[in-house]
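Predict fold of Gap junction protein; 256 aa.
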Amino acid sequence: MDWKELQKRLNGVNMYSTAFSRIWLSVVFVFRVLVYVVAAERVWGDEQKDFDCNTRQPGCTNVCYDHFFPISHIRLWALQLIFVTCPSLLVTMHVAYRKEREKKNREKNGENCPKLYSNAGKKHGGLWWTYLFSLFFKLIIEILFLYLLHKMWDSFDLPRLVKCANVDPCPNTVDCYIARPTEKRVFTYFMVGASSICIVLTVCEIFYLIFKRIVRGTRKWKKSTKSSTTYSKPYTCHNEVKSEEKDNKSQPRSVL
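Predicted 3D structure, encoded as tokens:
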């Protein structure tokens, strides 16, 4: 997996993100992706080979491993990182759509035509909802994967000894030993802690966006109540051109 390419694409999101999102992105790539690539992959690289059971029954070791590890921690974290970082790309896609729409508007109506957006990357209107939706999606994904990781062992702890009972073709109860359980336990708690920090940052950013939206709406409402209400016709580039042509025709021609 090319994590550098993903980082390059997500760095563009910082242009349209809040301070909370920039901190979140730093935590993801420094404390999660970097640890995952440098250390975690090596720690879990020999988990199935060194999963040792006290039986020589053919197939029993593989069945017990599959029973206790329906999905490997390292692969679960890889899926989590992919699903968590992808919603941020929705924001860049929405901004790209705005810029393309602005470009077509200028080509159609001319350079003097008023802009559709004062700033294509400013979080107003539909872009604000897209940004908020991406935050909720990231929050749900983080909580869901933490739940799945906890569900596998009924905790985030990894025992040294696991007992495989009533699982064919294993005879009776078979004792199996996990390779390097202490080292794996440390990395598990580290990744869970980093994920928890990301959850807190995402929740803070959601409240920050909603609070800022409420404050902005309150200011606009107070400003509108103080100022008098005026009605004007919608301004378009075509109306401006037609009105100028009409004024030119109505002016009397000078006689030389």
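The first strand starts at residue 52 and ends at 53.
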